[in-house]
Amino acid sequence: MKELEYLVRKNKLSNLRNKYKVVFPNNFKHNTYSIVLHKHFFNKTRNELEKLNINVKITGRIINKRFMGKASFIVIKDTKGKIQIYVAYNHISHEQYKLFKDFDLGDIIGAEGILFKTNSGELSIKCKNIILLTKAIRPLPDKFHGLSSQDKCYRQRYLELITNDKVYKLFHTRSLIIAKIRDFMIKRDFIEVETPIMQVNAGGAIAKPFITYHNKLHTKMYLRIAPELYLKQLIIGGFEKIFEIGKNFRNEGLSPYHNPEFTMLELYIAYADYNDLILLLEELIRTLAIAILGDQKLLLNQEYIDISKPFTRMSMKDAICYYQNIDIHNLEDLYLITKLAKSINIKIHKNWTIGHIQSEIFDKKVIHNLIKPIFITDYPIEVSPLARKNDYNSNITDRFELFIGGYEISNGFSELNDAEEQKIRFAKQNHYYNQDYITALEHGLPPTAGLGIGIDRLIMLLTNSKNIRDVILFPTLKNKT
Questions:
Q1: Which residue of 119, 290, 436, 462 lies most exposed, with the fewest beta carbons within 10 A?
Q2: Does residue 3 surpass a pLDDT of 90?
Q3: pLDDT recorded at residue 1
Q4: Which of 140, 173, 197 is the last residue of a domain?
Q5: At what angle are helices 435-442 and 228-236 packed, to 10 degrees?
Q6: Residues 327, 352: contact at Cβ < 8 Å?
């Protein structure tokens, strides 16, 4: 059926090409939007509108039609909403009406006419000029059933945006959230900067990079895992408060919370520590909730979570003990923690230390329990190669991660600014060694705190979305077989 309609539409387009020199015109300019008309004239009566005699020009895609001989109605959708257009045989030229009768759902049109209300009270446009701007030769999905699968929604996002107002609104909200984040930062005297996406060294986080090759330079390059090392070089150069919003890339798996290409906010503050970041992050999330939701409550699934009060703080070891119901001594002895890990089906890698095993137990057995906002602190030094060592316990770092809804939202820490120790950390942890960064550190990084926020996950929270693909316009997908 769809294939037959496709051929019929192609034939219509062919007939237009034979009859007219220009079949995709670009000379019709709208002077308003549907939302503006509804806002200003919805409460006007028929008589009031008739006296005002308002002429409007509007553009949009046909999403509904009722052809009734010599008088017809269509509904068009523009970038702001929808409006009905009344097209009558005696209000436009016979040639226009003849062409109009061949219009299909999905066609993009321009219409000019007088604003009025129908007998049922619906705000409409009495058309006196109508023009086909773009002929859609493929039909839209059925309005009652939509796209046939979620996979198709992701692969043909444009169709979902046309047919699903909720999705269209969600991505407007995404844009607003990012604008509010930027506004929040600038109001607090942060300077926005840009750092390279293609890098000679992959670093700034522990993750597998995407690899490319620069032909002219004859060198391997990496899509950035994180902008961290470049941003800290800017702090060394004299900036005090900076941030960057941009894409990061990690050549790893797909899941409801992971997309290989994702958007991050990273910020750095000189002469600050990780406690300052915690306060700033809480303030940012509350500010966004009020701006987007009008309240300091997040709806997660069917439960509202109050974020108006300071978030809970708990060390990683205490979180493991609490959610696994074990004694802390089991986490501080290599034999005991290895035995514990094996008993709960945690695979132990060769040469792992106590800190590695603690981190793995936390990741596999604790994180999914962290629904209400909680800062997990005191991360083992083994899994925190760029974080400052704690002054009182050399086994942990001044680092935290924020969890809400059972997944990580943010990672922050006081920065390691000792170049000699950073060299040792890189060597011990087989981290991607970056001599340029070490050289920069040797010129002196002031006491600094840095924070990364996964914007896609934050948007999931603020829109109560279940899958990261739902908040990314074009997510990474498996190849179709």
A1: 119
A2: no
A3: 64
A4: 140
A5: 20
A6: no
